[in-house]
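Whiteboard transcription, Tuesday session. T.W. wrote the structure tokens on the left side:
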């Protein structure tokens, strides 16, 4: 072996000896970084779990072995869950409630009212002008007649001319009065014995209606109304009624104030009609059709569910009833009996076995939408693809 061949292996061994401490240091750094990273992730993972809003876990589903009405899940809403989610449970007690008689109303265009008011104003002005001219010509005729008799201080022609003017003004006044009378009859035939004279005389009510400070609503009584109600409503209509645009429209109910029975029946249904006034700012516009409810006789018992207790899902109204202490379930309610102050009137007892002998009804009031949102969210998390949340 030559000296050169012996020297090369020794150089490679020395080079490996110098590199080994570097590899060892790098390996130690990798291990230390891994330990630190694992600790960091573990601590922050715990922090993330700790930072979840408590409300996410506050509303829990009860065991599926005890579903609520309509198969909806039973939700646990204890004091902690209510406080964290701003939920208030209200207690409703049954009491006699007025039976609401449903009718349809139409918001009338104020243009015909304005036209009749202008027509009446012109006829009244023409009558007043004719009356003034007649008063002047009558005085002139009397004066000329007296002067003619007093030694013929005026000519016969002057007296005759003043007499002709007097009779002409009499005829003009009669015509103007006939025009005003026709306008009055037209107003009465169109808008009744109360609103008609108001239009002719420029009263405060018609001024508000023409200015859209109030809206005139024609309410048609249903022809199939119970016979004990229809004559009573037509002859003695309630002074107050209320309307809603639709149950789920978001437009709150608003009061209606009676003006008078209308002079004509509805040409389509042949039902008698009533005139009511709706306040401005109530969400109505001319041409709108309203669901109107007139109070009837008292029913034995019922409960009024306020609007803030109602949630809407798939076109139905729902409330969260307390089925057992701190356990609530979503239950549909009918919407055919709106309450005057908003919400709905439910017949008592509810058609559920749990409430057959109940003396009160407990349900979620303010915060019902939060309960619904949480119920819906929990089903999404569980992957429930059914039609009901």
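and on the right, the sequence the group agreed on:
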């Amino acid at each position: 072996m030559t000296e050169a061949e012996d020297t090369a292996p020794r150089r490679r061994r020395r080079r490996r000896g110098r590199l080994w401490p570097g590899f060892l240091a790098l390996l130690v750094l990798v291990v230390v970084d891994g330990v630190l990273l694992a600790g960091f992730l573990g601590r922050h993972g715990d922090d993330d779990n700790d930072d979840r809003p408590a409300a996410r876990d506050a509303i829990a589903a009860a065991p599926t072995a005890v579903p609520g009405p309509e198969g909806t899940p039973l939700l646990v809403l204890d004091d902690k869950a209510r406080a964290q989610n701003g939920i208030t449970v209200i207690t409703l007690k049954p009491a006699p409630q007025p039976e609401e008689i449903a009718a349809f109303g139409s918001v009338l265009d104020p243009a015909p009212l304005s036209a009749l008011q202008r027509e009446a104003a012109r006829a009244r002005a023409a009558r007043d002008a004719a009356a003034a001219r007649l008063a002047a010509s009558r005085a002139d005729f009397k004066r000329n007649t007296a002067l003619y008799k007093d030694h013929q201080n005026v000519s016969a022609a002057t007296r005759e001319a003043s007499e002709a003017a007097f009779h002409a003004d009499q005829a003009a006044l009669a015509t103007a009065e006939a025009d005003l009378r026709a306008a009055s009859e037209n107003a009465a035939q169109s808008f009744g014995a109360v609103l008609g004279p108001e239009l002719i005389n420029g009263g405060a009510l018609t001024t508000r209606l023409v200015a859209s400070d109030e809206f005139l609503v024609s309410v048609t009584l249903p022809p199939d109304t119970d016979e004990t109600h229809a004559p009573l409503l037509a002859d003695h209509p309630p002074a107050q009624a209320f309307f809603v645009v639709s149950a789920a429209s978001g437009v709150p109910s608003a009061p209606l104030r009676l003006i008078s029975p209308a002079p004509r029946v509805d040409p389509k249904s042949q039902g008698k009609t009533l005139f009511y006034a709706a306040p401005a700012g109530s969400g109505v516009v001319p041409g709108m059709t309203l669901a109107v409810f007139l109070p009837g006789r008292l029913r034995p018992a019922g409960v009024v569910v306020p609007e803030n207790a109602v949630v809407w899902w798939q076109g139905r109204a729902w409330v969260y009833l307390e089925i057992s202490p701190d356990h609530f379930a979503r239950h549909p309610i009918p919407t055919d009996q709106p309450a005057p102050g908003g919400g709905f009137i439910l017949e008592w007892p509810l058609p559920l076995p749990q409430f057959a002998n109940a003396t009160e009804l407990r349900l979620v009031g303010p915060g019902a939408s939060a309960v619904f949102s949480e119920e819906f969210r929990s089903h999404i998390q569980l992957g429930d693809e059914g039609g009901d949340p």
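Someone added at the bottom: The longest strand covers residues 289-305.
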